[in-house]
Amino acid sequence: MSMGKPLPHDAAPLHVSGAARYVDDIPLPANALHLAFGLSTIAHGEITAMDLSAVRAAPGVIGVWSADDLRARFGAVPDCSPSAHDEPLLADGVVKYLGHPAFLVAATSHLAARKAARLGRIDYRELPALLTVDDALAADSRFEDGPVIWQKGDASTAIAAAPHQVQGSFEVGGQEHFYLEGQVAACLPQDGGELVIHSSTQHPTEIQHKVAHAAHLPMSAVRVEVRRMGGGFGGKESQGNHLAIACALVSLETGRPAKMRYDRDDDMMITGKRHDLRILYRAGFDAEGRIAGVEFTHLMRCGWAQDLSLPVADRAMLHSDNCYFLPAIRIESHRLRTHTQSATAYRGFGGPQGMVGIERVIDHVAHAVGRDPVAVRQVNFYAPMGEGPAEAGGASPPRSTNWPPEDIFRQKKAGEIQTTPYHMPVEDFVGDAMVADLLASSDYHARRAAISDWNRNSPILKRGIALSPVKFGISFTLTHLNQAGALVHVYQDGSIQLNHGGTEMGQGLFQKVAQVVAGVFGVDAAVIRITATDTGKVPNTSATAASSGSDLNGMAARAAALTIRDRMADCLALQHQTTANTVRFEDGHVHVGAEVLGFAEAAARVYAARVSLSSTGFYATPKIIWDRKRGTGRPFLYFAYGAAVTEVVIDRLTGENRILRTDILHDTGSSLNPALDIGQVEGAYVQGAGWLTMEELVWDAKGALRTHAPSTYKIPACSDRPPVFNVRLWNRPNREDTVGRSKAVGEPPFMLGISTFLALSDAVAACGDGSVYPALDAPATPERVLAAVKRVARDV
Amino acid sequence: MTDFLRPATVEDALALMAAGGVVPLAGGTDLYPATQRRALPGLVLDVTGLPGLCGITTGPAGLRIGAATTWTALARATLPPALAALQQAAVEVGGIQIQNAGTIGGNLCNASPAADGVPPLLVLDTEVELVGHRGIRRLPLSQFLTGPRQTARQADELLTALHIPASALSGQSHFRKLGARAYLVISIAMVAVRLDLQAGRISHAALAVGACSATACRLPQVESALTGAPAAEAPALIRDADVAAALSPLDDLRATAAYRSGAAAELLRRSVATLCQPVPA
Amino acid sequence: MAITINGTEVPLPEDPRMSLAEFLRDGLHLTGTKIGCNQGGCGACTVLIDGQRVLSCLTLAVQAEGREVTTIEGLSSGDDLHPLQEAFIAHDGFQCGYCTPGQICAATAMLRELAEGMPSSVTGDLSRPAPLTAEEIRERMSGNLCRCGAHNGIIAAILQVAQEGAA
């Protein structure tokens, strides 16, 4: 059985020897062109004149195009938007952020294109630039007509009627993806006008669709291939469209292959980042800290184009409850349009922004009632799940006919089920049990007491500790995206080739899906040949996003493999005068009646009997239904849970801070691959902690992003890793019928990083007499921590 | 045409530089990123192979550090405790890959206000040695650095060495920098302190702060406040206002001015406290 | 005018302004060396010159004239992997793999630096050989960024090889 084994990443030997090929490593024909964009130098303005003569005359330059040139040549300026058709490839008359691509250069080398792109002269008539959420609110500059409001119960009345109230607001910064491999695409023109695109993208079908549209080709004439990305994190869900389209257009214009790769500065200046926002809150609660009602306002800075901002802002609203049953809640979400980079998908897709809001509220409530924040979390938790399935799912390879087990959803009595702010029953809550386990394993209560003592005797260094839980909804909120396809071939020599719609960006998806398929055929995972994601093999795929990669593609690949296995079983059973359901596929062999065949021999016999050994597979997530206008339904198939305890130390005189210890317990269902899952959990935590501590994006008053290089934008380094870092998996079967009863793991542990922010706040509080709840914005840089310390201490 | 010059002697180098338009390359870790967006300008002259530019020598007048000495070589050298601050700075420059290629002379000529090497050299009363076809001249480091990315080096001169006078080789020194992360980032503030202690009192104090003004600078007012003071009381004599008065920090993307000067004062107090700690018997 | 790359002497590029990283990737198709930032801020392009780790994006190819350059491709021969390469697999010392060649090249040099007693900024006593601890390794590997956050595996892999070497 290969599911559940801690196998290394499938491409591990290639990665460690430098042989793993990324888009920029693919050899191109010698006549290939290299592209670069010329960027705007102001945030908002009308282009009054553009002089590109110096660009054209620069060494190595083959072609230069402005929006007008594209319109003249292709009838329109091609659109790059994944949503609202509001992102022309090049600024069309008006530049809308500083860094906006305004013209395109093709040259004989990457450096020649980049150098030439700096020679363009653009004259502008400057227009007022809206850079902040306050600017945008004042100008009523937004996407959609007004704020989106979802509510359950009457929050305002509930807050007013509650014995105690708190209110506050804080800022939460954005985040640069900083995938180590920057955005890159290449186009190889084929005969008959067809195009082959290599792209570092999480969404090959989107690239195919947008390129086809731009080139006036049917999708069938564009093939997109993605072997792997050097990191994605959501930043390659829509942001690669521009490069692929640019390459395709240049290929069509010149008949030559074209490649475009953003250098790091360009990548950071041009592409979107995590949405930053301001969160305003009000809550009413009793003396125990039990919340009666809460109101949130999210002011999300979406940037110049719509991109994925609406579903991101939705998901922030959808995670405003996190693990807590909130009887009455109102959430008002403003999606503000500014003249900055268009904020985009980033691991968690708004979920982290929503979750950090309620976690701060809980901390604030705990402060107000004078209780340990963990106790307040516990009194507000959703009711726990009833008895789960008795046996561990995925422990043995069941036949397709009698698996999966019955649906536990129906067993639950309706009266016990609490609902989320969007009226979805929470049936699978395990947060309470996980938190209890983690409190014990991390020795939380004893350490909290010890820290309190330690702080009394330490005038300069102050420690803080916090626990934060995670409940993250799994499924795309756009329901139709919850589908996947796969293609499996068994060859007559018994080798197996696997292809599916998911893309590999380091998360180990390919290996996990290979393990699923290997499990179906009873062969070793190494037998499965994993091939590049290819829109010519599996069409109409969704982005590898929303943590859904294994859930969707694992099920689709499983379906394809089961189809072939059933055909093989039928064929072999007929030959052996036995019934198909007695044929067993185990340990690389096929047991038919009394005979044991090697898998290769079995495949050869089935081939000789003229039975197809190839199949597609398809999966559509069941049960989900969602009305986003009203904010009601069941947008998620299930929730993934987790909890983290983080201990930090701050220097109250400089604000410097570091993590001392982290303990994590994370819910992966029955893990498909514990080694890969632990890696996901650790990496996500580090990235989440980075978001809320050191990763600071700074724009100047002109709208220029000043932190556009690794020297100024700080992601966690090896030395920032917690010196004590204990990670365990809550390895229990998903109650929903997912592949191997596993749970999605890409995004949920990102939000475990919130515990770092809360621990810093706890340490800040220790600098005062406890009467003031520390006002702390994120990211909690040394400067912000010091400012918070001063506010707390002044009120002593 | 070759644009890359690697002369065998300083004389040859100066002859090449006399023609103008020559950029000395002393490791390249700063030069290359600064020129990524354009071509490397003009001729590039690699100074790292020139005789006398690498290595550290001691003589009666003091210590001489070749301008093309790498951070790694500095960190590995056996040097008097007065140079501890410089060695601490050396192991925090960039990452180790940068330390292997980057040189002390390159760091000075690049003249970043946040250059790690400058505060430790300032507290050592360092002089720089410039060689041109008109001869050799020496300048105090504080006069060599004239502004952000500006130095007193003429286009046809080479920075060949740093001299630390024997008088500055006494005492102990300490370096400290502040930032969210030690490596691969530009510092928000950094300090170097060198103290001579005699009979429990500070007989000589040298303090410098980097990244908080157009060029790193000494703090004479604070130094005189410390001179003669009992070691145990020294940290408290460093007042925020005195430090702020000596600096002219800017609000920028990395920090506000107030945070910078306040943090610099605190770092100074700590470095002084570290150096004033009684040596365990 | 030549450089030795992974044991083979190759002529220098004609353009003296070409970085070593570009020369390796575009000139010699040794694409194991990755460009992450092209400005010395991430470590992905780390290679060894005469056994010392340097950033190939900040080094001109001509600066390596007459010297021995080792890239990730030069650490293994065929299926015969370097112990660090084996250990990175065993400890899951990567996810997306893009920083991995740089990490492994840096680690190779780091083990030598440790053996030679070179101090780091966390080495308390600069006059004695640095101890072999996870903290020292964390510190010494901080010139190589890993956005996936595979630091635990990276440290574990290096620690294992370091200890085996010391044993």
TrEMBL record, chain A:
Residues 17-128 form the Aldehyde oxidase/xanthine dehydrogenase a/b hammerhead domain. GO terms for molecular function: iron ion binding; molybdenum ion binding; xanthine dehydrogenase activity. Keywords: Molybdenum, Oxidoreductase. Its EC number is 1.17.1.4. Pfam families: Ald_Xan_dh_C, MoCoBD_1, MoCoBD_2. Residues 387-406 are annotated as: Disordered. Residues 387-398 have a biased composition (Low complexity). InterPro entries: Ald_Oxase/Xan_DH_a/b, Ald_Oxase/Xan_DH_a/b_sf, Ald_Oxase/xanthine_DH-like, AldOxase/xan_DH_MoCoBD1, AldOxase/xan_DH_MoCoBD2, AldOxase/xan_DH_Mopterin-bd_sf, Xanthine_DH_Mopterin-bd_su. Its cofactor is Mo-molybdopterin cytosine dinucleotide. It comes from the Bacteria. PANTHER family: ALDEHYDE OXIDASE 1-RELATED, XANTHINE DEHYDROGENASE. This is Xanthine dehydrogenase molybdopterin binding subunit. It comes from Szabonella alba. The lineage of its organism: Bacteria, Pseudomonadati, Pseudomonadota, Alphaproteobacteria, Rhodobacterales.
From TrEMBL, chain B:
Residues 1-169 form the FAD-binding PCMH-type domain. Keywords: FAD, Flavoprotein, Oxidoreductase. Pfam families: CO_deh_flav_C (PF03450), FAD_binding_5 (PF00941). GO terms for molecular function: FAD binding; oxidoreductase activity. InterPro entries: CO_DH_flav_C, CO_DH_flav_C_dom_sf, Diverse_Substr_Oxidored, FAD-bd_PCMH, FAD-bd_PCMH-like_sf, FAD-bd_PCMH_sub1, FAD-bd_PCMH_sub2, Mopterin_DH_FAD-bd. This is FAD binding domain-containing protein. It comes from Szabonella alba.
UniProtKB/TrEMBL annotation, chain C:
It comes from the Bacteria. SUPFAM superfamilies: 2Fe-2S ferredoxin-like (SSF54292), CO dehydrogenase ISP C-domain like (SSF47741). Pfam families: Fer2, Fer2_2. Residues 1-75 form the 2Fe-2S ferredoxin-type domain. GO terms for molecular function: 2 iron, 2 sulfur cluster binding; metal ion binding; oxidoreductase activity, acting on the aldehyde or oxo group of donors. Keywords: 2Fe-2S, Iron, Iron-sulfur, Metal-binding, Oxidoreductase. InterPro entries: 2Fe-2S-bd, 2Fe-2S-bd_dom_sf, 2Fe-2S_ferredoxin-like_sf, 2Fe-2S_ferredoxin-type, 2Fe2S_fd_BS, Aldehyde_Oxdr_Iron-Sulfur, Beta-grasp_dom_sf. This is 2Fe-2S iron-sulfur cluster binding domain-containing protein. It comes from Szabonella alba.
